[in-house]
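Cross-posted from the bioinformatics board.
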Amino acid sequence: MTTLYDSQRSLRHKRRAALQRGLVAILDIGTSKIACFIVQFDQSVQSSAQMGKGVIASHGAFRVIGVATTRSRGVRYGEIDAMEETERAVRTAIQAAQKMANTRVDHVIACFSGAKPRSYGVTGEVLVENGSVAEQDIGRVLAACDVPDFGAGREAIHAMPINFALDHRTGLGDPRGQIGNKLSVDMHLLTVDAHVLDNLLACIKRCDLELAGVVSSAYASAISALVEDEQELGAACIDFGGGSTGVSVFFKKHMIFADSVRIGGDLVTSDVSQGLQVPREEAERMKTVHGGVIATGMDDREMIDLQSETGDWHHDRRRISRSDLIGIMRPRVEEILEGARARLDAAGFEFLPSQRIVLTGGGSQIPGLEGLASRILGQQVRLGRPLRIQGLPQAATGPAFSSAVGLSLYAAHPQDECWDFNLPIERFGGRPLRRAAQWFRDNW
Amino acid sequence: MRPLNKGAKRQRVRRDPAPSRLFYRWQRIWLTPLYRRLISLGLPMAALVAGGHVLWSDPDVQAQVTASLVRARESVERRPEFQVQLIRLQDVPDDLATQIRQAANINLPISSFHLDLDEVKARIEEIDAVREVSLFLRAGGVLEVVIDQRIPVVIWRGAKQLEMLDAEGIRVGYLDHRTDRPDLPLLAGQGVGPHIGQALEILDAAHPVADRIRGLVRVGERRWDIVLDRGQRVMLPEDDAVRSVEHAMAMQMTQDVLSRDISVMDMRDARRSILRLSEAALEERRVQQAIAKDVDNNL
């Protein structure tokens, strides 16, 4: 936990440096596209937002000055699969965004959807030292959380304190300064595969950039797609990506659960490609232009030409009805939704007071998805588009960009995480001294 | 077999234009303000300076450039607007004018850029007869020379030559003969310069015998003698010389002393003037005294 704490803390320092400089690149590494925003922060608004003007004030604190998207290469299931290819794609996106912004960025906040996220609810309990809760008590209680054994090769990317309880009072957002004896905390810990993080770090480093933060894309897209009421009362955000579908649950403005279904829009495309014997690009085009999930009688009469160039006249001159296409797409989409349903059931979503479900991400643009989803997930389903942020071009306001937009919001107004608090010194043991000695040895 | 749907739109995926790592780095450097300024401004400047230096280090080029500069300068200087055609001297006697022209040593026509007026002025002021000179470049290529002349008031007999001096004792010119300027009084002796005013006062006071005066002699650089014709001298004291002259003139008016046969009238002691007889008068006196003695003895 301490090495993780240190590495996350260093990310946090870099992010602070980036905010100080006022420029940060937002990188959404998806399976089908890589989006890069360059976000400029206005220091004056930023400081007024920190003085307690609230979340909304921070939305005016930044402005998107550069946007670029590129087809993603070398990414599978939201994880970097071929480093070289991904690096080239990231370079393309970063370069185009830099060109639009006409500045150079050095810090990157990235999000990705894969790496098998797993949520843990952990609790910690500690006795308050001086009668009232001080900053260091919070550090102590966070350090006292009994971290489950999440296995080797996994790392925590989020560790958010979501609820504080003081003696018998629970549901405290900020217990500092309150009088009590026993302070306990509920923390949401999200772990991912460590090698995915390492790959991401290496990829960013190879592009001469510095990673200033890593966020799960399920979390990022929920920030932008859920409205404040939904975040408060309880809602799930389902982010239909290319390679994987992220699921996150929000309650009381905190993410309490996140997971991902490793099926995405790309699989629907490959189903179409296999089922109709057309090239993958053609299948992708047909899916986006003619695709749907609910067939009507009208669709039987709407014929689609299949375009392929094999040279076989009979093969190249096929026509199918839209119902055929829907018949191919629907089972796969249902499978995705059922996967999401299973994740939500596992998380105990049905016990939340409000069970609003928001569908976002590029895959949510399939016509009729809303109707299909309401059959599988429950009645309260809506399609979510990301919040409007300043300077974002119209082309980048669609649901496919909800995680990038959410990441920008996160960069402007980050959630408190475990590593924002100073852990008590005894956690380190003799480390500071050892480190000082090491430093002397290295330098003299 | 050729494809039959040749006219159909080809669904070729455009290659994603990924920048090379080198180009990516270059663009990042280019977007850094410091480097950008350095590259867009510093590098061309450095190249220009280096190129200029290389070019300039070639002596041929250097010579060409200087030559063309000189040509350009000369073409401006030679324009008729800047040519001096004439030297105009006003109210200057001819001999002095030729002297000044020689001293100025200007070959007309000359460009006013080549004319060093200060130097010309210094050269003209070296002429004795010129107290001060002002030079003006007038329109139409005229150099006007305005001269403040020195006026000679006395002639001084120096060791070799006769010199004309002005009231301040500064030489105005040389004379070959005394008779060239009979109107000026003659002075002699060393250290005359600062006392010319006094000499003029003495001469003024001695006007009753003006027609007899030959000149004044400065004796021992401290006092004056008036030299008259027939070898007569009036010796004047060091101070109050004018009063002594007046005294002597009074004696001359009443007793006609200087018409008599005396060689020296010594006025150096104000209480007691001494007259020295000439040799002939002395002899005459001796003869007369002897006759008187004889008469006395014979009586």
